[in-house]
Amino acid sequence: MGRFVVRRVLQAIPVLIGVTFLIYCLVFLLPGDPIRALMGEKQDPHLALVLRARYHLDDPLVLQYWHYISGVFRGDLGTTYTGRSISDIVAQRFPITLKLALTAFGFEAVIGILAGILSALKRGKFLDNVVFIATLFLISIPVFVLGNVLQLELGVKFKLTPVAGIEDGWPASYVLPGLVLAATSMAYIARLTRTSMIESVRSDYVRTAIAKGLPRRRVIGVHALRNSLIPVVTFLGMDLGSLMGGAIITERVFNLPGIGGQLAQSVSLREGPVVVGLVTLLILIYLVANLVVDVLYAVLDPRIRYE
Amino acid sequence: MSEQIIERPVPADGPTAKAPQPEGKPERVASLWRDGWTDLRKRPMFLISAFIIVCLLVLAVAPGLFTARSPFSNGFCDLTNSMTGPGHGHWFGYDVQGCDIYTRTVWGTRNSIIVGVVSTVLTTVLGGVIGILAGLTGGWIDSLVSRFSEVFYALPILIGGLLVMSMVGSSNVWTVSLVLSVLGWPQVFRIMRGEVIGNKYNDYVAAARALGAGPMRIAFRHILPNTLAPIVVISTMNLGVYIATEAALSYLGIGVQSPSISWGLMINDAQDRWLTSPHALLFPAGALSLTVLAFIMLGDVVRDAFDPKLR
C-alpha cells in the first residue's frame, strides 16, 4: 500500500513537470509583448530593458522555464508584471473556485448516486423513466444556458437564491452555481450508478444476502451498493478536476471572482507565471483526486490489493 | 467476440484468402456489427435521434433552402428591428443588431456540425492509431506515450482551449476543431491502448503471428476489428460533447468569431439582455440543446447495441 502510493506519486511528477512546461510554452508563444502592453502610451525604452531583465523575458524559453520552476521548488510562485505576488492571487482566487467545485461535487455525489439507486431499484417503472429523461436533459442543455435560466427564475423572479457574487458567503452564494456546475456530471453519475447497481442486484452475493434473511435495507445499502460504487468513484475522482476547469463558465454566469476570470485576464496580459501557477494547481488537484480513487478501490472492494 | 473470428477466418499469409462459400444457402453468421445493427434498428430512440440528425445534416449542407435570405447578404440586419420579439414573418424574433434570429440559427448549424464531425474523426484516428501502436509496442515507448497523453488528459479542456485558442490567434471552426482534437485524443488513446493490451495475448493473435503475419497486418487486420466497438461507442458519444464544447468556447469568446455564426456566440450576445428579451437566447440555446440531445441519444443507443460488456 505505502509502496503503491509512493510509486504513484513518483509517476505524477513527470506529468506535472510536463504540464507546466507545456503551459509555459503555450504562454510563451502567445502573440504580443507584455511589457509594451504594461506601459501603454508612455513607452520608456530604458525601463522596458530593466523590466525585461527582471522577468527574464529575453532569455530562451527553456531558461525562462528553469527560472520559474526553480522558484516554485523554493516555494516562490513569482510576481505579476505589476509586482503583485502570485501566491497572493492564488490565495484570494483559488478558495472560491475550490468551494464552488466541492459544492458541485457534493451535489453530484449525493443526488447522482441516490437517483441512480432509486432508478435501478424501480427498473422499468415510472420513476426510472423520469430519471432517464431528466439525465438526458441535464446532459444536453449547456451549462451556460442552464445557469442563465435558473439565475433568472430562482434568483431574480422568486428571490430564492442570491443572483450573483459571493457576498452571502458559503453556502448561500454557492448553492445555485454549484448545482448548475454539477448538472452534467450528476446525470452521468445517476446513469453509472444505475447500470452498476442493476448488475450487482442480480449477482450471487446479493441473492445469498437475501436468502440468509438480511433486511432489504442492508442488502441494498451495504452489499449491493458498495460493490457497485467502484465505477462511480472512478468517475467522481476524475470529475473533480473537470469541475475545477469547468467552473470557468459557471463563475462567469454567476460573477464569482474565482480563477476563471483571473485566467482569462492573465492569458490576455500574457502573464505566464500566473497562468502556469493556477493551472498547475488545478492539475495537482486532478492528480491527487485520482490517487485517492485508486486507494479507495481497496476500501470498497477488499479483493483488490496493492502489492 | 468470437463471432468476429468465425466470420473472418484467420487468413494465411498473402492476400486475403476468402473463406470458401459453402454450396447452397450460406449460413447466417452473426457478427458483432450485424447483431448491433439489427438491435439498433428496433430502438425508437435510434430512429428519433437519426431523424433529428438527418434534419440537422440537411440544414448544415443547404441552409439556404430554409431561409429566404443569407445572413451574410447586405442589409440583412436592420437596427430598427433590434430586439423585436417573435412575430409573423420572423418567428424567432430579432437580436440586438436587428438580425433575424431564425436565419442565423439555421445557418449556425453548419459550424456546429463541422466542429463535431471533424473533432470526432481527428481524435478517433489520432487516438486510435497512437493507441494501437503504443499498446502493441509496449516497453519504454508505451510508457513515454502514456505519460505524454496524461499531460494532455490532465489539462481541463476549457482551460487548454483558452490557452491554445489565444495562442493560435485566428479562431474559426477549423482551428477550434484542431484544438479540440489536440486536447481530446488521449481519451480515445487510453481506451484503444487498454483494449489492445487486453487483446494482444489472445490465441488468435498468436495464430496470426504463427502464420507469418507481420506486425502491421496483425495490428490493423486482426486486432483493430476486435477493438473497434468501444472506440465507435466513445466516438459517437463524443460528437455531442464536442458540439457542446465548441459552443462553450464560443460563449467564452475564444471559439468561433463574428461574423461567423455560432450558437455559443449568439447565446453570449443575448445573455446581457436576457432579462428583457429572452427570445434571443432561448432559440439558439434550444437549437444547441436539441443537437446535443440528438447526438447523446445516438451515443446511448449505439453503446447499448455495440458495447460488448453490456450485451
Automatic annotation (TrEMBL), chain A:
Keywords of the record: Cell membrane, Membrane, Transmembrane, Transmembrane helix, Transport
Coiled-coil residue spans: none
Membrane topology: Multi-pass membrane protein
Gene Ontology CC, one term: plasma membrane
Signal peptide range: none
Transmembrane parts of this sequence: 12-30, 100-118, 130-150, 170-190, 228-249, 274-300
Record SUPFAM superfamilies: MetI-like
Domain (ABC transmembrane type-1): residue spans on this chain: 94-297
The protein, known as: ABC transporter permease
Organism: Streptomyces guryensis
Organism taxonomic ancestry: Bacteria, Bacillati, Actinomycetota, Actinomycetes, Kitasatosporales
From TrEMBL, chain B:
Membrane topology annotation: Multi-pass membrane protein
Matching InterPro entries: BP-dependent_transpt_permease (IPR050366), MetI-like (IPR000515), MetI-like_sf (IPR035906), OppC_N (IPR025966)
Matching Gene3D superfamilies: MetI-like
Main subcellular localisation: membrane
One GO-annotated biological process of the protein: transmembrane transport
Domain ABC transmembrane type-1: 109-299
Keywords: Cell membrane, Membrane, Transmembrane, Transmembrane helix, Transport
Family: Belongs to the binding-protein-dependent transport system permease family.
Protein name: ABC transporter permease
The species this protein was found in: Streptomyces guryensis
